[in-house]
Amino acid sequence: QLQLQESGPGLVKPSETLSLTCTVSGGSISSSSSYWGWIRQPPGKGLEWIGSLFYSGSTLYNPSLKSRVTIPVDTSKNQFSLKLTSVTATDTAMYYCVSGGSSFEYWGQGTLVTVSS
Amino acid sequence: QSVLTQPPSASGTPGQRVTISCSGSSSNIGSDTVNWYQHLPGTAPKLLIYSDDQRPSGVPDRFSGSKSGTSASLAISGVQSEDEADYYCGAWDDSLNGWVFGGGTKLTVL
Question: Fewer CB within 10 Å, N- or C-terminus of chain B?
Fold first, then answer.
């Protein structure tokens, strides 16, 4: 059973870069059958897809965030990350790493990131 | 403003059948499959239905999904108190070239 675990700072200052890491266990991040990505949920709001990393190494990002987001991968550590630059208070959210194909079968427990000075 | 439209709330008494709708357009629900997620407070969202009407292993068969045109529905037959949660629909959107979700429906079991 694939398991995902997010890690990273819970507090980020405005204009700085939000950096989170997702550690994958129970499967290889190099698997040809999986997508890997990030979804967030601002307080009191719905889910928002941030971006996805495909087994080919290509990435796809939400057009509304594309200029600020990257999803690097470290296959040696079986991890992938989220980098979101120039954050503002509107980036405050619960961030989930996800996997398992286009239906997002697997989810991490989520990590709350607050953007505040 | 979410791309997919869901009612903000739904309710039912134990044992009742409850349905939650999800409305989209030709660029998302009308051209691709719909997934449904259950989100219990303090937990990670859980995939409930994929590819319009398929249940992952372990999901009770009282949950079912359907789709017609640019709309989809989640039905819960014989709703139970443990089903009280937020439910989200999601789909790929060809125009946005990304995945989109509904705003979520909060189910209350009275």
Answer: N
